[in-house]
Write a structure and sequence with these properties.
Helices cover 52% and strands 0% of the residues. The chain is an all-alpha fold.
């Protein structure tokens, strides 16, 4: 934590043509913050769904 991964990705997104920064942290931004097998599957499913939609989009 705190080594600059998110900052580096945000900078790279502006430098690379046709790029997307998919930040998985927002998937856990919930209240209450609950980690169970169900919520872990949900987060992975949501990330995969978004990633696949970006991959399918010809603009990216």
């Amino acid at each position: 934590m705190g080594v600059g991964k998110t900052t580096s990705c945000r900078i790279l997104k502006t430098k690379l043509p046709f790029s997307v920064f998919l930040d998985g942290d927002w998937c856990w931004d919930s209240h209450p913050f609950v980690v169970t097998e169900e919520t872990k599957r949900m987060v992975v499913d949501n990330i995969c769904y978004l990633l696949n939609n970006f991959i399918k989009c010809s603009a990216y």
